[in-house]
């Protein structure tokens, strides 16, 4: 696929992934949207706003359907560049948004590596908003919080639990005016979940000498019911839906599908082999790798066999394994023009 070449068996395998996904929990698959080309911008630049609006609209619609209070989180930008317009341009590609509004129940994606299990691309749901002190109480008596949250108690027990929690919180937070942050329950690859109080993180654009030209401080979350392929670049997703009907650019199909960590969590609609295209530079790059490998192994000592794998055998491995997609680095994705 990375070279824009598919065998009939590979095509059948991808077409077989056009089926509904079911996980047995509250987490949904993220829908990836392709960029829509528009060459009306100055200097024939690609205008990505149509797709961005489509993604924003999809996420906003889901947000409006949620009940409850909306919390807004605004970024704090800084850096040595004081011109706001220039600094904004530098931060245009920052994953962290200038502002984000969330409600309880919102599906979000982590955009910062926290540890080995909570990484860039982890998907979760906002389950509450609280400050650090309340989170400490929550962490110490999570069962009590969960019982009240899920209403897994009778009326009398519910009343007692609510009074107990209210007393605990009022005692520890008397006179406190701390900021409330989203508490997110993330789905972990092993089937478990983890709760994280998402506070501000930092993103920086700096020169080799260490000068920070632009920086952004924001909660490390974006809405994740829908996402553009461009935004998903560099992330891995356990659950993803991809509509290839709007694919137009070379390499987009590969970048989109390679976001998935496994076939079980991938749904592909409108798969068309003609949409699987690779840039000439990518083919040249891989041809050069093959040539180097061939040169280094063609004169193997003691008549040893050459190493490497043919595209046909690589695709057969994909079909037979039924699970894992190979992950490429950001440099290769950049070569695809993303």
Give a short summary of the structure.
By secondary structure, this protein is an alpha+beta fold. It has helices at residues 8-15, 49-64, 84-90, 132-140, 142-150, 155-172, 229-232, 252-257, 280-297, 311-321, 330-335; strands spanning 30-33, 71-74, 76-78, 99-102, 107-110, 123-130, 181-187, 193-197, 201-206, 212-218, 221-223, 226-228, 240-243, 266-269.
Describe the structure.
With 338 residues, the protein is an alpha+beta fold. The chain has 11 helices and 14 strands. The protein has helices at residues 8-15, 49-64, 84-90, 132-140, 142-150, 155-172, 229-232, 252-257, 280-297, 311-321, 330-335; strands at residues 30-33, 71-74, 76-78, 99-102, 107-110, 123-130, 181-187, 193-197, 201-206, 212-218, 221-223, 226-228, 240-243, 266-269. The strands form 4 sheets. Strands 8-7-6-5-11 form a 5-stranded antiparallel sheet. A hairpin with a 5-residue loop joins β9 and β10. α5 packs across α6 (155-172). It is globular, with a radius of gyration of 24 Å. The protein starts with 7 loop residues before the first helix and ends with a helix. The model is unreliable at 37-50, 171-176 and 304-338 (pLDDT under 50).
SSE topology sketch:
Layout lengths: L7 H8 L14 E4 L15 H16 L6 E4 L1 E3 L5 H7 L8 E4 L4 E4 L12 E8 L1 H9 L1 H9 L4 H18 L8 E7 L5 E5 L3 E6 L5 E7 L2 E3 L2 E3 H4 L7 E4 L8 H6 L8 E4 L10 H18 L13 H11 L8 H6 L3
Parallel strand pairs: 1-12, 1-13, 13-14
Antiparallel strand pairs: 2-4, 3-10, 5-6, 5-11, 6-7, 7-8, 9-10
Helix pairs in contact: 5-6
